[in-house]
Amino acid sequence: MTFTWIQLGLYLFILLLLVKPLGSYMARVYEGERTFLTPLIRPIEHLVYRITGLRGDEEMDWKTYAVAVLLFNLVGLLLLYGLQRIQSALPLNPQNLGAVRPDTAFNAAVSFVTNTNWQSYSGETTMSYLVQMLGFTVQNFLSAATGMAILVALVRGFVRHSGSTIGNFWTDMTRSILYILLPLAFVLALALVSQGVVQTFHSSQQVSLLQPIQGASNQTINQQTLALGPAASQVAIKQLGTNGGGFFNVNSSHPFENPTPFSNFLEMLAILLIPAALCYTFGKMVGDTRKGWAILAAMTIIFVAMLSVTVWAEQSGNPAITKLGVDQTASSFQSGGNMEGKEVRFGVANSALWATVTTSASNGSVNSMNDSFTPLGGLVPMWLIQLGEVVYGGVGSGLYGMLAFVIIAVFVAGLMIGRTPEYLGKKIESYEMKMASLIVLIPIIIVLFGTAISVLVPAGKAGVYNPGPHGFSEVLYAFSSAGNNNGSAFAGIGANTTYYNTILAFAMLLGRYWLAIPALAIAGSLVRKKTVPVSSGTLPTHTPLFIVWLIMVVIVVGALSFLPALSLGPLAEYLMR
Amino acid sequence: MLRQLRIAIIFLVLFTVLTGIIYPLVVTGIAQTAFPHQANGSLIGKEGNYTGSELIGQPFSDPKYFWGRLSATEPFPYNAAASSGSNYGPLNPALTVEIQARIEALKAVDPTNDQPIPVDLVTSSGSGLDPDISVAAALYQVPRVARYRGLPEEQVHSLVNRFTEGRQFGILGEPRVNVLELNQALDELK
């Protein structure tokens, strides 16, 4: 158990250590200042502007910015859908995979464009190398950059005053990709290959079995077929961009996607790296890093509390198994605990940590099967998603979601003590409050209504895999994941059906753009306002009191919205043990 | 609006080339040069006669071999062309049935062993391809393997020790034993 806490502590330590250097680097990038990569990348950046016919200093108001976001995502969606539908006629398809079904292709296209990366298909048996590269890898970059761009636009709404423009979407996109995502992904991809993540264009590899086995129809099987592919380049960005879509069916529990404890550490670090560092970027850009640290502190406190529960629940093991005389106690010879759906090299500690990390960020990749977690161990990841993906959250989207909670926190606190609510010198009025409420409420509505409909209609019930309350949890998890753009699953659910592919695709679309547009609307409204100087009436928004208050607001909204649903699923299951 | 649409299309094409073609190709080029073994699947053996991958488990049911994790891949276990976990919930009766069957299979070939069975030996891995078992799971099987091979237990035990991999850098992950490599080494003893 000592090693468990050492590993968790080490993870958190390294993560927080990187927040300031990366955060201030990103702030410089978005403000167009010189960085150590500028000599290398500036020429490419200018080439992009020249080809697209952009001038670097063109500014957009919030509506133009939103239109650019939507149009760009729409053409990305169409391209990705088209690629899957005609993959059999395209090169780099060594397994000769056929065209992807329309409903599956639509779901996957929406999923990757919205930064969700819910996967109803199985990677190695459905998608050609070309689709994985030209389609999914590209959208991993673009959807991540879209989230970061929207965040930066919102931050400009706080920083600028008495104006109307919030930056240029194309410039923000270009800089996010060229200066931040691409260099990090490049380094991470190579580090992952060094650990054993595959990166090749060869078709699958035949190897002989040491002990031949009998197949289902009594034939002798003496060969094993290893699925390969250009995985490392995609895995790197799937983690960094909080996308999470696996190259292989079982995502990062596959030994070719996550071969060693070190690759596991790097991949986990990559999930939270940018979302955490963006808090510092935010603080830097608004001219008061304490504001950024306060938000990061609130996130980290919720994260650590949740993590402790998952680790404890999974380490306690499964009582149903203990009865059979199986040893689940931790010792220096085994990790013990609930090992169903987990890999030995990661054990309970790194599996529980990953599950918490991937659901607090809207990443959704897995290194163990969440569906097989203990009731409480599975409740935590689900609830973290349901909190709205604001505990770190997705790259960009996590922080703009959290800023909506900040607006609500400031507003409610202001009302309670009779002061005019303001944040960062901007008055928070009914328009901002309405938009922030949309950001908080829309995912909740999607999740609860989607679940309610699906457990009533036959097409929804047909997908349920496990019996009892766990089956309900599978449906609830699916809509939580889609509506909050996470992408992980209680994967037993049979989601590759026309019904689930369609309804979940719409859940993902609503959960992405009905949050992005209000966030930009807030930016557009704030940027027009004057900056009010700090006075004795200003509520400080960087103190421990504020941090606790922010945590309370997030937790109370999450608990009030989801406790009834959770008690029908994981809580009921816990009581039935 | 039309201008934004035109930019959107050019931008998409441009970044598809950069992040969808150039980036993976450059990574592949460097990976194949610097880490050819890892980039191609960490294969064991020689070209034309590969006997497995260091990273991918194989199915074992013969009592003279160490057994690995259960595997939920279809249509046969350890199908590395279609990775999959069992996705059984903790209270699913099917999970208990499967574990019970595994316990019985272990007892059938090793009736005198009354040690508690390590949990990873009776559960399915997430990938269905887990190459490792815990050290406890390997030690549990030492008497059986030694007996079926007519080897002294100490010799098998020391082989397990040789193939035990500690935590990476002394900290990360869990100590573990690679089942395929251990079994290949067992076969080479004779």
Largest interface in this structure: A-B, 132 and 110 residues
Query: What is the CA-based Rg of chain B, rounded?
Result: 22 Å
Could you tell me the mean pLDDT of chain A? 95
Q: What's the number of helices of chain B? A: 6
Return residue spans of chain A where pLDDT drops below 50 for at least 5 consecutive residues: none
What structural class is derived from the secondary structure elements of chain A?
A: mainly alpha
Largest sheet of chain B at a glance?
3 strands, antiparallel
Order of helices and strands of chain A: HHHHHHHEEHHHHEHHHEEHHHHHH
Helix content of chain B: 40-55%
Outline of chain B: elongated
Multimerization status: heterodimer
Topology, number of strands of chain A: 5
Short structural description:
The complex is a heterodimer of chains A (577) and B (190). With 577 residues, chain A is mainly α.
Describe this structure in words.
The complex is a heterodimer of chains A (577) and B (190). Chain A has a two-stranded antiparallel ribbon. In chain A, helix 10 crosses helix 12. The model of chain A has no long low-confidence stretch (mean pLDDT 95). Chain A contains 20 helices and 5 strands. Chain A has one domain. Chain A has helices spanning 2-30, 38-52, 62-85, 102-113, 123-126, 129-159, 169-195, 231-240, 261-285, 289-316, 319-322, 347-360, 375-386, 397-417, 430-454, 458-461, 469-483, 498-528, 544-568, 570-576, and strands at 205-214, 220-226, 326-327, 422-423, 426-427. In chain A, a hairpin with a 2-residue loop joins strand 4 and strand 5 (426-427). Chain A is mainly alpha-helical. With 190 residues, chain B is mainly α. Chain B has helices at residues 2-34, 36-39, 93-109, 135-149, 153-162, 179-188; strands spanning 43-46, 49-53, 117-118, 132-133, 164-165, 176-178. In chain B, the strands form 2 sheets. In chain B, strands 4-6-5 form a 3-stranded antiparallel sheet. In chain B, helix 4 (135-149) packs antiparallel against helix 5. Chain B is elongated and about 80 Å long. The mean pLDDT of chain B is 95. The chains are: A mainly alpha (577), B mainly alpha (190). At the A-B interface, helix 1, helix 2, helix 3, helix 6 and helix 7 of A face helix 1, strand 1, strand 2, helix 3 and strand 3 of B.
